[in-house]
Queue: 3 jobs
Job 1
Amino acid sequence: MNTGLPPDPSEFTLRAPQPGDMGQIVSGQARLYAQEYGWDWTFEALVAEITAQFIRNFQPGHERCWVAERDGQVVGSVFVVRQDAETAKLRMLYVDRSARGLGLGRHLVAHALAFARGANYRRMELWTNDVLVSARRIYEAEGFRLVEEDHHHSFGKDLVGQVWSLDW
């Protein structure tokens, strides 16, 4: 259960990606969202495309990925990508079921925000769907505000996409 306290660093390690991690992140997210939200295999294509673009277009100093590892297993991740000179984009926040309740999601987002601020971005944006309630709570707690909503049919479901933004 999430106590609201900072996560115990002994519970997991945050590190840069290593060979094989990206495939695990794509697979883990695809399986998790299929199990929890009934999303189909087209979601896997989206996360695979985002991951491939990150690898191909990686800009050190402007972009970053953190992989959360626990007992030798990938249990979470988050990406920061450059949208433009002033805007960072938070991508693919993921926490495996086995690591829930440890504050890992909050910890990953905090690292992403600190990196974006240190890279001299002026804002961070993200796209999510309204059904991802736990993630949205993290964004709201960090001060993100909802700036756009759009109904769409994706991943085999009728969804409400949302754009959130945080300026500093």
Job 2
Amino acid sequence: MTGLSQLGRFSEPALLILISLAESAKHGYAMQEDIAALTGERPGPGTLYGAIRRLEEQRLIEQLPEEDRRKPYRLTDLGAQALQAELVRIRAMASTGLRRLATA
């Protein structure tokens, strides 16, 4: 399976895009708004579209037909699998970190 770590500096934006698309298909601006609501920070267009391009190359997301000159994207089955694996990995890491803090 393709991992998000292969995306280098785009791995965090890629994760946020996958989380956004897990809810429903969205175009770039809608993803920016959703990510801003989730994190408090809005990704810039270069970061967003760079990550989108890489996610498309890895077939984790796919573009849908244009709607009013907007290009919506959706999560693929492979993308859903990659997102789930990454979230499980993060949950395990966070759980260990929180447990270690509690004993410190």
Job 3
Amino acid sequence: MRPFAQFALAGCLLVAAGTAHADETKFLQSFKGDFAGKGTVQVTTDVPNVSVSCSFKSNATSTSLSLDGSCRGLVLVTRAISAKLNVAGAKYSGVYVGSRTGPAQLNGSRSGNAINLGIRWAQEVNGDRKARMTVEKRGENGIRLTVTDTDPKTGKNVVTSRIDLTRT
């Protein structure tokens, strides 16, 4: 009877793993498409926000998500921005390009409709190399990209970037 119980448990674990992978695939696929929107960006916590207009093309497979686009602010300034994430089990990892410091490493996991990522900047920003990024699916046709960092003067978390995108 004991070998049967182990076999049954192994079968349940395989089914659960397959379901989790299927759920992640469906979630990732929901990001596919072209998106545009507006938001604000704050390069460091001691400068004012800049309003930006952005457009992105998003692609997804069963194990990856990529966002490629650009944001324009102050009429003449345009910056290419991209995030490329790979999924292994419940863990997300990848690279964010768009910071003035160079490519940043991303690591995290999904919670509900949001991918919560730790950022490791290529150089210090706001006194350290750490921040947080959230890629949140909002309804069928929306994405919110949010970056938070710690203000070195107050020690409080500050939203340094928030961009709301809608499928076009």
